[in-house]
Design brief:
Layout lengths: L3 H31 L29 H6 L3 H7 L40 H5 L5 H9 L1 H4 L13 H13 L3
Length: 172
């Protein structure tokens, strides 16, 4: 039933169908993106909009100090899972990043045995206070431009407060 000619026709049919789909995709791309010229020229008519004068105030969450006062250490231990890839909790056990044992209250750039600090951190602050840690953990590259920490940050103030409270309990 299956001979060489039948198999050749089946493979040729699949290849031909694939070629038609590729050709169709190319034609559609040319029609809608390159040939149409969307956004290349000036807008023909612009609708004037009156400025209301006042912007609506952006509603911010609770202050860090309030959240930190009631932080959950157990939740902070769970949040530390995001840090575990690069940081260790044991004193002197540096990894990709410095160890975090006793980090709250420690001088910035003072982890024993860790020499890969970028220098950008010490230009911003002197000590890892809870407030400094909060700003750094929210947006590391925004708070200390040029830092070598590649973590994007923790947008939730509750997560940051819980994590800092957990790190603060390690050296008690």
């Amino acid at each position: 039933m299956f001979d060489t000619m039948t198999l050749t026709k089946i493979v040729g049919g699949f290849c031909g169908t694939f070629l038609v789909f590729l050709l169709g995709a190319w034609v559609a791309e040319e029609i809608y993106h390159v040939g149409g010229g969307h956004g290349d020229g000036e807008q023909a008519y612009s609708i004037p909009v009156e400025d209301g004068g006042e912007e609506e105030p952006v509603e911010e969450g609770p202050a860090f100090e309030e959240v930190f006062a009631s932080a959950d250490v157990g939740a902070g231990e769970r949040v530390f899972g995001k840090c575990r890839a690069c940081h260790q909790l044991e004193e002197g056990a540096n990894a990709v990043g410095p160890y975090l044992y006793g980090v709250v209250g420690r001088d910035i750039g003072a982890a024993d045995g860790y020499g890969a600090y970028s220098g950008a951190l010490s230009e911003v602050a002197d000590v890892w206070s809870p407030e400094n840690l909060n700003h750094f953990l929210e947006n590391p590259r925004g708070w200390a431009p040029g830092t070598s920490m590649s973590f994007n940050g923790l947008p939730s103030v509750e997560e940051r407060a819980n994590l800092i409270a957990y790190l603060d309990t390690l050296d008690e």
